[in-house]
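Methods — Computational structure assignment.
A single polypeptide chain was analysed. Its primary sequence is given first, followed by the predicted tertiary structure written as structure tokens.
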Amino acid sequence: MKKVMTIISAAVVLTACGGSESAGGIAPKVYTDSLFAVMKADRTNYTKLIIKRLGPAGSGSISPEEHWQDKNNGAPLPAQMFRFGAEAVAEMTSDFSYSLQSIWPVNSQNAPRTEVEKIGLQFIVDNPGENYYGEEELGGVNYFTAVYPDVAVAAPCVDCHNGHKDSPKTDFQLGDVMGGVVVRVPL
């Protein structure tokens, strides 16, 4: 873990100094793997340490749900927190981007758009525990694109997706790949 933090810190320092070579010599795979490690840890901890405790079996004082903004005691779901983070990063830097996508999206805006995203998402479903790496050109820019499995880590994940009216798949179980995290870095 210390190694991952060192790599990310180095990348942040390099980009903060205005270096146009965003990874500063760090291989794109190492860079995206490191970014994903931080994202996964934050997402898993939010789900297990916060959402799981606030749900139906929790205190009830704060209610995590999709339309959280319409409630005085509402809190965003893990996928929404993840998207807010991705949007905030997009406002700060163009050195990388990330998104949560699925071939079974509850929200259609989370469906894959590029061929690499589609191939990558299917690959992680067909090959549990493996990541997908590819390159693609978008808008005249070449990108290294990594797709990491987004696994159901807690019952609230499964319950929410299986019970949602817009979910195209309703038989998820704990440990299933529900989608993927797509991390894109310009080359």
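Note: The radius of gyration is 17 Å.
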